[in-house]
């Protein structure tokens, strides 16, 4: 994927996964992360993620590697120094800043899958969703709403629409499904609607 949809370059078949750097209070989260890593490889995708060896992040990477897949990690220098780097990846890129990391993860990927996570996951999720709204990229953003984990956030987004602060067509850009196959199928079918980018939209 390119961060600009207009440059005509082909998209790599890779999904960028955002998920927790911890494993959570229930073993079901780690089991889910393992299923995600394996399923992405079975569907022919490479995995892009934050490059850490811990939490759900590490589980996704380990499962994808065990299944014989390509796993690309992008880690900021500071986190590498904290010894969280996964040493067994197909490729680990060290970048200077968190901002650079996100831009690089976007360049490497053709879609974004959000698993359960905390602040870091939410921040990455809303940034790529905002970039889709602005047509800075045109790739699917999918929430795996396992066990209703994201019900509150999805309901809040509907509330924001009712308050007139989020356009319904922008709300509709976000894909969500409780099942892994369901969200991956929806992402594969996804076609971004044609829309002007923030840079080309005429001034009122
Ligand atoms: P969180 O959901 O707060 O655990 O943050 C996880 C997300 O933020 C991941 O998708 C990572 O890209 C990034 N992140 C947060 N903590 C770390 C860490 N210790 N090592 C690598 N990436 C991290």
Q: How would you briefly describe this protein structure?
A:
This protein has 204 residues and is of the alpha/beta class. 42% of the residues lie in helices and 16% in strands. 38% of the residues are buried.
CATH architecture: 3-Layer(aba) Sandwich
Q: Can you tell me the CATH class?
A: Alpha Beta
Total strand count, please?
Answer: 7
Order of helices and strands: EHEHEHEHEHEHHEH
Cα end-to-end separation: 31 Å
Write down the Rg. 17 Å
Biggest sheet, open or closed, and with what strands and sense?
7 strands, parallel
Question: What level of helicity do the residues show?
Answer: 40-55%
Count the domains.
Answer: 1
Look at the structure and give the mean pLDDT: 92
Strand line-up of the largest beta sheet: 4-3-2-1-5-6-7
- CATH fold-level topology: Rossmann fold
Helix tally equals 8
Q: Unreliable stretches, pLDDT < 50, 5 or more residues?
A: 1-6
Globally, the shape reads globular
Q: Hetero groups bound?
A: adenosine monophosphate
Strand content: 15-25%
* SS content category: alpha/beta
Quick tags:
single chain, 204 residues, alpha/beta, Rossmann fold, 7-stranded parallel β-sheet, 8 helices, 7 strands, 16% strand, disordered N terminus, binds adenosine monophosphate
Summarize the SSE layout with pairings.
Blueprint: E1 14-18, H1 27-42, E2 46-49, H2 55-66, E3 71-76, H3 77-81, E4 91-95, H4 98-108, E5 111-114, H5 119-133, E6 141-144, H6 151-162, H7 168-171, E7 174-177, H8 180-189
Parallel strand pairs: 1-2, 1-5, 2-3, 3-4, 5-6, 6-7
Helix pairs in contact: 1-2
The protein binds adenosine monophosphate.
Adenosine monophosphate binds at residues 18-22, 50, 52, 57, 79, 84, 117-121, 124.
